[in-house]
Amino acid sequence: MTMLSARISSGLMMVVAGVALMPAIAVAQVPLQLNVPYRCQDGVTRTITRCERNARAEVCFWREQEKGEVTERYNVRSQMDGWLSTCTAEAPQTRAAAPPAAVASGQPSQGLSPGYLSGFPSVNTVKRSIQGSTPADTLARQIAVLNYLPRIIQRMQMVPGRRYNSTTPDEQRLIDAYSLASYELSQSYAKSAAPQDAKAFQQMINRYEMNPALSDQMFGLLSPATLAEFGKIDAAASAQAQARVDQQRRENEQARAAVSQSPTAGGRSLANDPGAVAMRRCLELGGSELECLGKGLTTGFTKSILGVDSIIPQSTTRGVRIGGTFKTASGLALDFDNENANISACGKLQGPAHEYAVTRRGDQLQVEIMTEPKPLVVLLGVDGRFTGPAAFDLSGDVIVGYNTYWVESRTSDNVVVPGSGHQERVPVWDRKIERCGFSVLRPTGPAKADVSVVRELENATAALAGRGAPAQKSETAEAPAGPRFAGTYVGAGGLRFEFHATTVIVDCGEAHAVMPYAVQNFADRLVITVRSGTTPAPLALQADGTLRGSGSIDVNGRVVTGTDANGVTFAPRTAHCAITQLTPQ
Is the pTM of this model over 0.70? Predict the structure, then answer.
C-alpha cells in the first residue's frame, strides 16, 4: 500500500490511564443536551453530537466553533463537567438541525462533503467483512484496514485544483471514527497481552498495512461510485508526479553535462579542491549527479570565497536519539528527528521544535522534551509505544486574529504596477497554555532520512506510486520508528562510523559505503547493529559514551575514476577493518 500519512484533528486524549484505579464515588453529572449549541464564557460555542460507551468509559464527541473556525473534539464524559459548568445551552426552539453523524455504525450518512464519502464503509462493515484465521489475526487485519482508510481520504484530497490542507468537517469526522475504532481494537488486545505478544501483534499490523491482498479487499468495501472517483483522482495525482519525474530527469541530464565538462573528463587527473572532493564523495556514496553537483558547488564556494568549510552549522548531537512519528488516538503527535521533537495537534498550539534528551531506564528509554512551562517526560517501552502523563500543560502560540494590509507591486523606479494591488492577511499571535494527554502514543510514521531537497523530491515522487504495491524506495530512505543513533565515531586503521537518521556511513581506509543499522535497547545494554551486506556488526554502547565491538567489517564501495559519454565512471574499492573500540569525534 502507499504509505501516506493520515492527518487526524486536534483533540483531548479520550482515555486517562488512571481511570480504572479511581474510587467509585457517586457524582451527579450535568445532564447533556445533544445537538444543542452551548454558549461558553471563553467565547467558544460547543455542540455535543453524540456519546458512546466503550469498555472503559463513556466518550462524548462535540464541535467547537470560534471565530468562524470549527474543530472536532472528544473526551471522557467525566472530564467534561468543568467546561460545561461555564456554558449555557441554547433554547431548544432556536437550535438548528444537526448535521449527519460520522460513520461509526450502520449505513454511512448521505449529503456528506465531498459526496464520495458516503461510499466509504462504516466501522461495523469493516469489522463484519474483514476476518482472519484467528481472533488476533482478525483484529490485526481490521486495525490495518482502519489505519489505512484515512490515507485513502487523504489521497482523494489530491484532486487537481483543490487547496492543500483543506480537510472538510465530514472528512475529519470520518477519519476520527476510523482512528477511534482502531485505537479501541488495539487496546482490547494490548490490555491482556504480554509485552512480547504486543510487539508481535504490532508487527503483524504493520505487515498487513503493506499486504496487496488485504488492500484489494479493503478497496472492495468502497462503493462503485467512490471507487471510480478514487481511480480518477489517483490517476490525476500520478500524472502530476510523473511530470515532476520528467522534470527531474531533465535536470539530471543538465547536471551530467556539467560534470562531463569538469576537469575529471578526458583522462586528466582528478581535482582535489574542496568542492571536487565533496562532489566525488557524494557520488561514491550513491548521490544523484544533480544533488552532488550542488554539494560540490556550495562546498567550493564557502571554502574558497568565505574561508569556511560550510555555512550550515554542523550538528554536535551524538548518542541515542529517536526517529519517527507517534500519535494518540485523538491525533496528538510527537514527531522526532535526530535534533528535535515537534508536538502537533495539541489544541491550536503552534510552537517551535523542542530539544530533547534520551536516558536509558532498563529496557525503557526516557525521553525528556524541553517544553514550557516544564519539560514533558515520556517513556518508550519494549512494545514500541510511548507512555506519558494523561494530562499535561503545554505553552505555545495561537492565532488570535488577523491584520489586513493593502499590498502593491512596484517597479525598480518605485512606480506602482497597475492592477497589482491586493489584500494580504497576516496572523496575530498570542501565548496560550493548552492541556493535552500523552497516555499512549503508537508509532504511525517511520524515521526519515536526512537527505537533500533533491532526494526529498525523488522520495515524494516514489511515494505517489499506484495503490496496489508499496512505493519503490531505497532501503535506507526510511527506518522503523523508535530508537536511532547520531554522531561520528572513529577507531583504529581508518575505521569511521558516521551515524545519520536512517543510515550510517562507514569508512575503512579508502573504501566507504552507506549501510542500514538498527538500535535495540535491552535491560542491561544498548546495541547498534550495522548491516554490511548480510553480515551484522554489533556495537555496544559503553557507560563512557564509546562504542565497543568485536570481529571485523567489510566495506564494499566505489571511487570516481572520471567521466565518459555515458556519465561518471567508477571503480570498485573494498577494504577490511577490525572493530574494537570507537571513540566519539
Answer: no
